[in-house]
Write a structure and sequence with these properties.
Layout (H helix, E strand, L loop, with lengths): L1 H20 L12 H16 L5 H19 L6 H21 L9 H19 L3 H21 L2 H22 L4 H22 L6
Helix pairs in contact: 1-2, 2-3, 2-8, 3-4, 4-6, 5-6, 5-7, 6-7, 7-8
Length: 208
C-alpha cells in the first residue's frame, strides 16, 4: 500500500516536471519537482529491502543518494561540474553493486561499448572545449557501468544501464550542441526509467 502511494506521487511529480520543462516562466518550480524524483524511488527501494538489506544494497543506495545530489546541482547553471561529479560517484557505486552480482565476463560486448563511446566523444569533441576531460572521464565511467550491468545477466539492470547511457548521451547533445525543451523531456523520461529499472533489478526478489 505504501509503495502504491509513493508510485502515485512519483508519477504526478514526474508529469509536473515534464510540463515545467516547457514553461520558461515557471522553470524555477522544478526546484520542487526534479530533486524529489529520486528520493521517492529510493523510498520504494528502502521499503522493498527493509528486512533483507546487504552490503550490495548499501552500495546501490549510495548511488541513489549521489544521483539525488547530481539532480539538485544540475538545476544550477554554475554547478555543472559538481553535478557531473556526483553522477560520476553514483555510477562508481552502481559499478561496485554490479561487480558483486557478476555472473559472467562479457568480453565480447566491449568492442561495441567502446565503439559507441568513441563515436559519441568524436561527435561531441568540437563542442566540449574546457569540458572535454570531465566528459571523457564520465563517458568512460558510465560505459564501465554498462559493461558490468551486462555481466550480471539481470535484464532489469541491463535495461537500466542502457537507458542511462541513452539519457546521458541525449543530455550531452542538449547541453553542448543544441538545447530543446522536448529533448530535455526525453532525457528526463529515459533517466527516470533508468533509475526505476535499476531499482527493480536490485530488489532481492528480482536479482536473478
Amino acid at each position: 500500500m505504501k509503495n502504491n502511494i509513493l508510485v502515485g506521487v512519483l508519477a504526478l511529480l514526474f508529469l509536473a516536471d515534464l510540463i515545467l520543462i516547457t514553461q520558461e516562466n515557471l522553470h524555477s518550480l522544478r526546484f520542487f519537482t526534479k530533486p524529489l524524483l529520486v528520493p521517492l524511488i529510493t523510498a520504494t527501494y528502502l521499503l522493498d529491502i527493509r528486512k533483507k538489506a546487504t552490503p550490495i544494497n548499501r552500495y546501490f543506495l549510495a548511488g541513489l543518494i549521489f544521483s539525488f545530489l547530481g539532480d539538485t546541482f544540475l538545476l544550477f547553471k554554475w554547478a555543472f561540474l559538481p553535478g557531473l561529479g556526483c553522477f560520476l560517484l553514483a555510477h562508481i557505486w552502481y559499478i561496485l553493486s554490479f561487480v558483486k552480482l557478476r555472473k559472467a565476463k562479457m568480453i565480447g560486448s566491449l568492442p561495441f561499448i567502446l565503439a559507441y563511446l568513441g563515436c559519441l566523444l568524436f561527435f561531441l569533441h568540437p563542442y566540449l572545449k574546457e569540458m572535454e576531460i570531465p566528459v571523457i572521464v564520465y563517458g568512460v565511467t558510465i560505459s564501465t557501468m554498462a559493461y558490468f550491468s551486462l555481466c550480471t545477466k539481470n535484464k532489469w539492470l541491463i535495461s537500466g544501464a542502457i537507458l542511462f547511457v541513452i539519457s546521458d548521451s541525449l543530455l550531452s547533445f542538449n547541453l553542448f550542441v543544441n538545447y530543446t525543451p522536448i529533448m530535455e523531456q526525453v532525457v528526463m523520461t529515459t533517466y527516470l526509467l533508468a533509475q526505476i529499472s535499476l531499482v527493480y533489478g536490485m530488489t532481492p526478489s528480482k536479482r536473478f
